[in-house]
């Protein structure tokens, strides 16, 4: 069980609500095509400003998942 | 339109409420003197502890804005 | 007063609720054994994914506190 | 529109002509299999030397593209 | 020949035996789905501790491979 | 003469032509409001992709200039 | 179970035999005073050279352990 | 009082005497145009060599100051 | 003798006089509770500004010491 | 053939024309004293500004070459 | 004795056997031309893949040695 | 004059007196074998502790010098 191989992909989620919500959206989207997700790591937090206000947050994460048949 | 020049300034907002609120306060304050803000990037999250509890969050951001007449 | 010596320890708090809550839990736990905490700095934000959803956030902070008798 | 999810892939293009051409080749090759590319970021510039001269440039970029159906 | 385009993927291999073995397992697993692998770079070495002993090593590598038809 | 004080500002120039041209545009724009510029350092090279091609380069530089009356 | 608080300490193990052995020695020594160790991360590999040969390896690790009563 | 907004500027002071003196000169020069300075951080120490000796030190600092009316 | 295990702690000393003095104060304070100190490494130099002048320097060091009984 | 030993030296080339030309000049100059150069890596791009225009580019590279008789 | 001056050179050793062996080869080769080597630090671990297997490891080290007559 | 090629070497000076003195010693020693030194950059400050006090400072610098005949 300790000898799995994991792959990491880098995703950026965006949300008008909060950085946490941006991460959740990225994980939800990944769930459609990637199985066995195990962890994430936040590698950058940015955002767009429109009309002098924060319009949305953009959070970049690395998501690790188990490769089957390792 | 793609050939603008942008300037970046570094600001630290603080808030007793949350790191997001600290970013919002920094962007609001910047809006008083800077026009055409376009994006921000979080470059550090710190905080002060008083009486053994989090007293306020301090979030440092870089804010980019379009320079007019480029 | 300006000539204190501070020590920094590195802690990781975890929370199913939010990254802020993970930081708060780390500070609360530290308060049981460390006195005179003064500041913290977030040095990493990670999380575990279970059943394709974020199960909990893990935030690593450095906490600085004044050493007495410096 | 602001709530897309993006994926980033890392590519290295090479060119005997120039580093810009190396980036262009990487983007062109990516266009064969990836849709909706939006931005790139240069993360490293290297090159091979043969017969004591620069034989080709190797530029590594991260390319971000919109994931459909986010 | 010098004008290939390469792609890099990030993998984490694990092994109870040694960090080298963890790398070998990651490369072996990648060989099942990726062709034309050319190089790897170690980007992190971690491990799990169980019963106060090293239970297994986890080594994260970037693996570069030639994209065909560049 | 060796005891000047310099200030650094961070600018991002963009250009459809090349990264060098993006730097030149940033320096030209800065020349309108900053005197005594002395050096620059490239701190990031990015770009936008439209219709699967590089639409423009965005190069971020730090520009140092002498403060008068130091 | 997911809401533990962890502490990290930084140790350097040394060994004439190999870097792996240096890590093992650091973990063994830590086991004398720290309970509930969970993971380690290698943060630096150095060594001493004597008589023009590698005399011993010095590997610095961060070791994370669960704080009880969190 | 905890909810100020701070701005950071980057300055390089130079001095034939010492790196400390270079920092002092940068802070003194900044005092002519910036109010409410609160802290600085050294981000680089360089120097020029003339006639095979250190001619002057150049120390780059970030200076943080409170923005009024935040 | 080459197979010791070392522990590193992170301390910040402060001094109105100079950064060197700040380091000395941190080492002196550490000497009260830590035995067998062997080396230090400067990891950050900051300071506070009061009345537009440097009020004190704050230097953060990592201090390494031999763990007995390794 | 795979068991060579390489040495790396750090050079800065400068050119009024372009950053590529600055790299070429550094490689050409190195060719006068170093044999068997194999690769280079760009580690920094800077430039001097005179009369408010880019006067020349300065590009720092690491150059790797095979040590004979390894 | 404490007031020596040291020089650091950067070498890359390669070995089909293991990363440790790659370091040993680099140190052995350096011993032919450099005297008084004192320490090394691993700054990068890479490798080549041939026929979908690790063909050899390439480890880059910095080697420090005492300059005589300092 | 602007199209010189520079080489950088890495040196560590040590001094019981101060970090500045350690840098001066490194530059003085380099002057015995290197001509046309132009600048230095501090890349690390460490020190040895003996009998619980700072025994000497060790400062690592990169020294740049003009290569003749470029």
Instruction: Report the portion of residues of chain A in β strands.
Output: over 45%
What's the multimeric state? homododecamer
Biggest sheet layout of chain A: 3 strands, antiparallel
Rounded to the nearest angstrom, the distance between the terminal CA atoms of chain A is 10 Å
Largest interface: A-D, 17 and 13 residues
Count of alpha/pi helices of chain A: 1
| Shape call of chain A | elongated
- As laid out across the biggest beta sheet of chain A, the strand order is 1-3-2
Total number of β-strand segments of chain A? 3
CA-atom Rg of chain A in angstroms: 14 Å
Kindly describe this structure:
- The structure is a homododecamer of 70-residue chains.
- Chain A has 70 residues and is α+β, with helices and mostly antiparallel strands.
- Chain A has one helix and three strands.
- Chain A has one helix at residues 19-30, and strands at residues 5-15, 37-50, 53-67.
- A three-stranded antiparallel beta sheet of chain A has the order 1-3-2.
- In chain A, a hairpin with a 2-residue loop joins strand 2 and strand 3.
- Chain A is elongated and about 50 Å long.
- The N and C termini of chain A lie close together (10 Å).
- The mean pLDDT of chain A is 95.
- The interface between C and G is medium-sized, with 17 and 13 residues.
- Strand 2 (37-50) of chain H pairs antiparallel with strand 2 of chain L, so a sheet runs across the interface.
